[in-house]
Amino acid sequence: MKITILTGIVAGPLVVFAQLNALAKDAGLLYFGTAVSPSDSSDSAYYKLENDIKNFGQYTPDNAQKWDATEPSRGRFSYGQADSIVNRALSNKMLMRCHTLVWYSQLPGWVSSGSWTKDTMTAVMQTHISNVMGHFKGKCYAWDVVNEALEDDGSYRNNPFLKALGDSYFALSFQFAAAADPSTKLYYNDYNLEYFPVKADGAVRIVKLVQAAGVPIHGVGLQAHMTVGRTPSRENLTWTLNKYVALGLDVAYTELDIRIKPLPSNSSSLQAQAKEYEAMVGSCLDVPRCVGITVWGFGDSHSWIPQTFSNAGDSCLFDKNSKPKPAFSSVSALLASASGKRAPWNTAASTMMATITKPAAATPTA
Questions:
Q1: What pLDDT is attached to residue 316?
Q2: Annotated active-site positions, please?
Q3: Are the beta carbons of 59 and 292 closer than 8 angstroms?
């Protein structure tokens, strides 16, 4: 694919105006994507950017496919908001990363407060997964099957599934998912795998449990919710990704943002953010089985960060007016410079197994 890059100088650094998904595909990734919400349509400038496949080639619903949205009461399923997102993606010829099936959070009260035995929880999980995945069968490139099952120390997070089933719920979740839609890629997805090696190893343990049960698992999603000044180096990020590639899996950054704290942001913090976005994207380019990158909203006006973290924000590639920030320019320039250097996705090169060599630099800590 031939990409035209328009460059200009704006008070210093080189600014590259380009379209992220087109550049990412030209650099050998499958997509550059974004999380989306039905409410995005209320912001016309943002919505226009979001609907252009040259900008974003993949959607992830931010909340519309979570358990409280899809099965708010037992056996009653609701898909209206999720359908609107999926249908828009398909109309735009975009991929869908569907999210998420088994998660400790955003559970309806009938699940989180229920009194479950092994048999009843197994039945509830199977019913939920088979119905939700069955409704979207053939429409999702990938599903986050199990989400955030680990504490930062690598131990299992306490949740209704673990209480009723122990660690067998991992393999059961993937077993039910594989039966519901054999054509989709099945992922384990979690945050802080980039920061805590012990947590990253916990995800390895989950993958091996599923594989030992003879159940398909195709990838690990690293959420990549980062903080400026704490993002690991490109080398260390690559090392973490390769932990999962060595198990025969694909990897992806699934919810990328890099928040600035404290606010307000300034030219220095925005330039630091740009360099850290470059390290994140660069590490994916360095790993042949890194499928692609999804940002958790691309504009600061649509970010979840200010409502969740005190005195933090400005985490996205675009500002509150949907104008590109230095981070957008650094990511665009990096992708443009990588054009043609990596084999296109799904070729023999992208199925190579990784050899893990721990980087010379110290392993990053919190």
A1: 98
A2: 148, 255
A3: no
